[in-house]
């Protein structure tokens, strides 16, 4: 059994400026984002974490470094956790009320070069397959909103439209308990903390402080 704790990066300058970006080296964490990452590290100190994996994108990597400092673990960069490739939308600003994703799903908007939901789900599934084992361990994976939504929707047997209401806030915890790569129980989605109820479900290899 493997527990996979997905964490969305902390608040970044792109979040504040409402900029869409998959760039690797742009848009660092804000002061608020740094504090969020520190709080996430404190939450994770309740659990014995074996490894931390992270998207190479700066805002995620910074989040993973801060969490890793709290836990004494250096993060491992994994390209499969990267931000959704945004095609022609990269580095454009957006209006939250405009719902460009919904327009795209309804075929009212075509986005050239946008990574498909299926491709994003495939790489996140591949990540799960590579880390799940029988050793009762816990890993952390720092990623982004859409990739985390994609893997949650997959295990809930939802497509992009059906999973539209899934929300992954900054520095939140989405926790999967996996017996194997095809059998994962979702214990939390976008939670601000790791609750006592979730901790009680995390079995023998998880140490509660």
TrEMBL record:
GO cellular component: cytoplasm
Residues that bind substrate: 8-15, 59
Catalytic residues (positions): 9, 83
Record's protein name: Histidine phosphatase family protein
CDD domains tied to this protein: HP_PGM_like
A Pfam entry, by short name: His_Phos_1
MF terms in GO: phosphatase activity
């Amino acid at each position: 059994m493997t527990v996979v704790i997905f964490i969305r990066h902390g608040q970044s300058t792109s979040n504040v400026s409402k900029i869409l970006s998959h760039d690797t080296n742009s848009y660092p964490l804000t002061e608020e984002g740094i504090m969020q990452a520190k709080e996430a590290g404190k939450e994770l100190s309740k659990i014995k974490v074996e490894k931390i994996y992270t998207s190479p994108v700066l805002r995620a990597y910074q989040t993973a470094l801060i969490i890793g400092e709290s836990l004494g673990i250096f993060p491992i960069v994994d390209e499969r956790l990267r931000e959704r490739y945004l095609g022609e939308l990269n580095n454009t600003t957006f209006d939250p009320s405009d719902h460009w994703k919904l327009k795209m799903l309804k075929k009212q908007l075509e986005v050239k070069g946008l990574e498909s939901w299926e491709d994003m789900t495939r790489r996140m599934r591949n990540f799960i397959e590579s880390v799940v084992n029988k050793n009762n361990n816990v890993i952390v994976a720092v990623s982004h909103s859409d990739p985390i939504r994609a893997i949650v929707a997959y295990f809930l047997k939802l497509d992009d439209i059906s999973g539209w209401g899934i929300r992954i806030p900054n520095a939140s915890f989405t926790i999967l308990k996996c017996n194997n790569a095809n059998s994962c129980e979702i214990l939390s989605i976008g939670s601000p903390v790791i609750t006592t109820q979730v901790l009680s479900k995390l079995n023998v290899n998880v140490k509660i402080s």
